C-alpha cells in the first residue's frame, strides 16, 4: 500500500525490489528497504518533520549527513533521532518531533 499523501512515487525511480512498511504519523508508507527515514519521508504531503524549539517553525532535512539536526523525529517512542542517519525497517513507527516548552 502506497502512502496517498506522498507526492513522490518510489515506483518511478528504479528503487530496490525489496520494500518495507513504515508508519509515519499513523499512515502506512511503503518505501525501499535500506533508505534512510529522511529519504523515505521527504515527499510526504507537507515536507516537515519537526518544529524548532525556539519559535516553533516547521523544519525539514537540510544537510542529510547528521550535522544540522533539522530532521529530528521520534522513532518507536525514542525522541531526538536524526532521520537522515536512521535506516528504515519493517514496522518502524515514526512521529514528528514535538516542541516541548
TrEMBL record:
Q: Would the keyword Oxidoreductase turn up in this protein's UniProt record?
A: yes
User: What is the organism lineage in this UniProt record?
Assistant: Bacteria, Pseudomonadati, Thermodesulfobacteriota, Desulfobulbia, Desulfobulbales
What Gene3D superfamilies has UniProt attached to this entry? 2Fe-2S iron-sulphur cluster binding domain, sarcosine oxidase, alpha subunit, N-terminal domain
Q: Could you cite one Gene Ontology molecular function of this protein?
A: iron-sulfur cluster binding
Q: Which UniProt keywords apply?
A: Oxidoreductase
Organism, by scientific name, is Desulforhopalus singaporensis
Q: What is this protein called?
A: 2Fe-2S iron-sulfur cluster binding domain-containing protein
Q: Does the keyword Oxidoreductase apply?
A: yes
